[in-house]
Amino acid sequence: MSTEATVEKIVSLCKRRGFVFQSSEIYGGIGGFWDYGPLGVELKNNIKRAWWKAVVQERDDMVGLDAAIVMNPTVWKASGHLDTFADPMVDCKECKRRFRADELAHHVPASAHGHAAEAPVVRCPECGGELTEPRMFNLMFKTYVGPVEDDASVAYLRPETAQGMFVNFSNVLQTMRRKLPFGMAQIGKAFRNEITPGNFIFRDREFEQMEIEYFVKPGTDEEWHQHWVEERHRWYLNLGLSPERLRVRRLDREELAHYAKDTYEVEYLFPMGWSELEGIANRTDFDLGRHAEFSGRVLEYFDEETGEHVVPYVIEPSSGVDRLFMAFLMDSYDEEEVRGETRAILRLHKDLAPTKVAVLPLSRNEQLVPPAREVWALLRPHWMTQFDDAQSIGRRYRRQDEVGTPYCVTIDFDTLTDQAVTIRERDSMEQVRVPIANLVAALREKLEPA
Ligand code: ATP
Fold it and tell me: With 0-12 CB in 10 A as exposed, 13-18 as middle and 19+ as buried, what is 68?
C-alpha cells in the first residue's frame, strides 16, 4: 500500500467508479450490507477465480462444493454455534448506542485506567455515558422455514460455509472415491449479525467466505497445517500484496476458538492496524466427531493399508472475499506526479484487474470510431473490456489508471493507413505499436504469460 491510500480515498473511489455502493442507498442504506457495482463484481469474481484456481484446479487433492445457506438447525447445535457463537454486548445508558465489550476494552482512555488491581472503567466512546453490564449476543440471523412461525420452524442463515463441507464429508468421500489427505473448497455467502460492523467492507453482516476443509490422518495434522500456512501466505504474495504489510501470526492459547488445537492468521496492515484476512486453524476431529454424535451417522475414513477406521483431523484455511477485496484495493492504490499532475492508479495484479483492456479512439472523429468499435468487438470474446471515447485521451488514460486497467489500446489516424494500434501499459505508461492482426496474441502474451 502506498502512503497515499486512506480508507476515505478508497471508499470514495469505490463509490465514484462503481466498485461498491451502500446497500439500498436510496432508502438511507442498512448498516453492514454493501452492493458491488459493475467494476466491483469483476474484481470480486477475479479474487474468487484466482483462489479457486490455486486451491482446486491446480491441485490433485481438492474438490469443490456449493452447499445450501440454510441448513438443518441441528447443524448449529452440533457445531457449537447455537451455544457459543456470541459476542459480549454493552449499551450506553445515555445515548443508547451499542458496542462490543471486548472491542471497547482495547480503547480504554488513559485517564480511565484505575489504580493497580482495579478493573479499568470503560465509558461510552461516543458520549462518555455509563455502560450496561455486558450481555452475550448470538450473532446468527434467525429465520423461519415454511408458513408457520414457531419454534419448530426456526432456521439460521449460515454464519460460516464450513459446516456444509463437514456434513457432506461422507457424500464427497464416496462419490469422488478419495483417499486421505483430501480437501473440499467452497465459496459462498455467510451472515453474522455483527454488533459493530464497520471499517467499510472489512466487517459486514453479509459477506462472502472462501473456505477449505482439508482432511488428514491424525498425527499428520501439524505437518499439513504448516503446508497450508505456507501455501496461503504465498498466494497473497503472488497476487502482489506488499510483503511488508502482510504477516502470519500464530495465535496465543487464550485466543484459540473452542474447536482449535492451533491457529495462524494471515494479517494485513490496514490503516486501522494489523487485521485478519484469513484464519488457518487445526480443528482436529472436533467437527466430524460432533456431527457423528448428533446425527448418529458414522463419519469416518477406512484406511485400507492399516485396516483401521479413523476420524480425520481437519485443517481449515478460511478467508473473506470482502476483506481481501479491501486489502487488494488499499495495497494497489498509488498516486504519482506525471507532468505536473497527480495520477491516481490502482497497481492491481493483472489477474485481478476488473477490466483488462480499454479501447480508446484518439478522438470522437467519425473516421476513428468505427474501426475502434471493430477492435473492441475483436477483443470482447477474450477479456473484460471497456470502450471510452469521451473527453481527451489523457483524461481517459487517467480514468483507466484509476480503476487498474492494465492495457489501453488506442486507435489513431495512422491506424487508417497502417492497420496498427498502440498498446499503452498502465504502470510504466510505455507504448508499443502492434498490427491489429496480432493484437489478440500480443495482449494474450502480456495478460496470460505462459
Ligand atoms: P473477526 O475476529 O475479525 O471477527 P473471525 O475470527 O470471527 O473474524 P472467522 O470466523 O475465522 O473470523 O472467519 C473467517 C474469515 O471470514 C475471516 O478471516 C474474515 O476474512 C471473514 N469474515 C469473518 N467475519 C466477517 C465479517 N463480519 N465481515 C467480513 N468478513 C468476515
Answer: exposed
